[in-house]
Amino acid sequence: MFKQKRVAIWTAILIIIAFSAILIGRLNVSSIAGEPYEKIKIFAEVLTLIKKNYVDEIKDDKDLVYGAIKGMINSLDPHSSFMPPEAFKEMQVDTKGEFGGLGIQIGVKDNLLTVIAPIEDTPAYKAGIKAGDKIIKINGESTRNMSINDAVTKLRGHKGTSVTITIMREEFEEPRDFTMVRDIIKIHSVKSKVIDEKIGYIKLTQFQEKTDEELEKALESLNKEKINSLILDLRNNPGGLLNTAIEVTNHFLPTGKLVVYIKGRNEERIDYNTTDGKQKYEYPMIVLVNEGSASASEIVAGALQDWQKAVIL
Questions:
Q1: Cβ(240)–Cβ(207) below 8 Å
Q2: Between 20 and 30 A from 306 (CA), which of 27, 123, 146, 193?
Q3: pLDDT tens digits, 59-112
Q4: Domain housing 175
Q5: Residue 303 sits in a domain of what CATH number?
Q6: At 83, phi and psi to the nearest 5?
Q7: Nearest alpha carbon to residue 86 among 39, 150, 172, 27
Q8: CA nearest 202: which of 184, 214, 187, 210?
Q9: Which strands form 229-233's sheet, in the order they lie side by side?
Q10: How far apart are CA 146 and CA 149, in angstroms?
Q11: Is 79 a domain residue?
């Protein structure tokens, strides 16, 4: 009982730290927004107190620092998260298109861990996991307050090992367990074919490092089939690399067209425009989207619609 009280006290202290606006990196000790930045001392003082007095011995300061940063970042919005080195490596694996896991793209929606989209031909897709499913538990552990990075770590694993996720869906009366066996997920981000001998069809499953290269080959192949129109399918595409999204639009929009821009609090704006060097395809286009289309998919679809290149369906 005493230990539980001590844990509660130190948890409260860490929450206070998260709201102290601790910044790691370029610290301006003199002032930020006109206020002295002496409160950074609070973090150092509490860190010292925890190391000296916490009921359990703290063996690694990194765990405390990372925990404080995670709490601070998670309090901002559902889309911001702290990425330690291990998580950064996982992201690099994602964008290369091969990893061991279930084939689920996840995010946070309404503060709940949510399936953005299952990747086709993966254990999750075959098990019937759907976009919008709420992941309540992973191997019996509640996902409440679990970060996306922590969830990804638990879902990933070696080929042949199993994992059970508990899903809540709108039509379910109560959560259901789905047990799946992990496999090597190889994501070919571009699939193409010809429909009715004249309509080209391209499906982008994700925006990876090699997506533009694969798309270029698919377009060249369809062009040889003398297609006269094109369907770009972005359904259940959760996004990926921003630069790749820009490269994709290069094939369909004239040079110098604005695709997207980024603007921060300091009003500095970064524009991403189409460039030359890519063959431009003038086919009439339809872009397919659904609730699983997110991030880079929305950017591409929006740019093609804004410049009146494609109809969104």
A1: yes
A2: 193
A3: 788 888 888 888 888 888 877 878 888 777 766 766 666 678 999 889 888 888
A4: 85-186
A5: 3.90.226.10
A6: -115, 95
A7: 150
A8: 214
A9: 190-195, 199-204, 229-233, 285-288, 310-312
A10: 8
A11: no
Residue with structure tokens 């689920």?
A: 104
Angstrom CA distances, 149 to 10, 31, 54, 55, stand at 24, 32, 27, 28
- Half-sphere exposure of residue 104, counting CA atoms within 13 Å on the CB side? 36
Taking the CB of residue 83, how many other CB atoms lie within 10 A of it? 15
Start-to-end CA distance of the chain, whole Å, equals 59
- Domain count along the chain: 3
Cα(191)–Cα(52) distance, rounded to whole angstroms? Answer: 58
Reading the block at residue 240, the tokens are 């990926």
- Tokens standing for residue 100: 């061991």
Residue 106: what residue type? Answer: I
What distance in Å separates the CA atoms of residue 114 and residue 120, rounded to the nearest whole number?
Answer: 17
DSSP-derived letter for residue 285 is: E
* CA atoms within 13 A of residue 229's CA, in its CB half-sphere: 12
The rounded distance, in Å, linking the Cα atoms of 84 and 64 is 13
197/194 Cα distance (integer angstroms): 6
For residues 219-249, one letter each, b for 16 or more C-beta atoms within 10 angstroms of the residue's C-beta and e for the rest, the string is: beebeeeebeebbbbbbbbbbbbbebbbbbb
Cβ–Cβ under 8 Å, residues 292 and 236: yes
Does residue 274 belong to any structural domain of this protein?
yes
Q: Please indicate, yes or no, whether residues 65 and 97 belong to a single structural domain of this protein.
A: no
CA distance 175 to 134: 9
| Residues forming beta bridges with residue 261, ordered by sequence position | 271
Task: Please provide the size of the chain in residues.
Answer: 313
Q: Write out pLDDT tens, residues 153-191.
A: 899 988 999 999 999 999 999 999 999 999 998 777 899
End residue of a domain, out of 46, 74, 102:
74
pTM value?
0.58
CATH of the domain at 156: 2.30.42.10
